[in-house]
Amino acid sequence: MKYGLISTAAPGRVIRRQDFGADTPPVQDDGTKWVPDTPPIFDDTKQTRSNVAEIPVNATEVPYVVTDIPLERLRGVRRELVEKARYAVEAEGIVVDGIPIDTDWHSRATMMEVFKAMQDGFVTSSIKLKTSNGFTPDLDIAAMTSIVRATMTHVQEAFNKEARLFADIDAATTAEAINAIRWP
């Protein structure tokens, strides 16, 4: 069993924690005593647990405080999780006409730079894009238009879904409802 060593002279914090197993902790003669230290069970998706600020000298166990997490903080945590999930989907890549296309930020920026140069006539021949799977076949302006359109549609769909989930998070009125909102 776990125990906490507390002062018998003045209120304070746990001085030390120790597991004595089935043994009884030793009796102290130095102004301290061992008391059971069994934290309460709590739901970490909607609550926090902490020691009390000052443990009274007559405590018979280490006291804890379980507090509900404010809904706004839960909303912020859930938004961060949804945002990470959205970027993972956004950057997972797509296949356009049998060609694997990377859709992370860097790849999209490079793709748009080449596409703009093709539109403006600075690049008049076909090009190859480098992807995580190697190089694409030669791509002309029509193929690049198709790739850019598909990529932007993919990215926008991810953002649209994120926006819907954010609206659901904002509308939720309980911790359970907030925590139930997930990116499938």
Report the radius of gyration as a whole number of Å.
29 Å
- Gap from first CA to last CA: 41 Å
Spatial ordering of strands, largest sheet:
2-1-3
Low-confidence runs of at least 5 consecutive residues: none
* Annotation, overall tally of beta strands: 9
Q: What about the largest sheet?
A: 3 strands, antiparallel
Q: Beta-sheet strand percentage?
A: 15-25%
User: What is the count of helical runs?
Assistant: 4
Measured as a percent range, the helix fraction is 25-40%
User: What is the N-to-C succession of helices and strands?
Assistant: EEEEEHEEHEEHH
Nearest-integer average pLDDT: 94
Primary descriptors:
184 residues, alpha+beta, two-stranded antiparallel sheet, elongated, 4 helices, three-stranded antiparallel sheet, 9 strands, single chain
Explain what you see.
- The chain has 184 residues and is an alpha+beta fold.
- The strands form four sheets. A three-stranded antiparallel sheet has the order 2-1-3, with no helix packed on it.
- Helix 1 runs antiparallel to helix 3 and helix 2 packs across helix 3.
Write the layout of secondary structure elements.
Elements: E1 2-7, E2 16-19, E3 32-36, E4 47-51, E5 64-68, H1 71-90, E6 94-96, E7 99-101, H2 105-119, E8 130-131, E9 134-135, H3 141-171, H4 175-180
Antiparallel strand pairs: 1-2, 1-3, 4-5, 6-7, 8-9
Helix pairs in contact: 1-3, 2-3
Brief overview, please?
By secondary structure, the chain is α+β, with helices and mostly antiparallel strands. It has helices at residues 71-90, 105-119, 141-171, 175-180, and strands at 2-7, 16-19, 32-36, 47-51, 64-68, 94-96, 99-101, 130-131, 134-135.
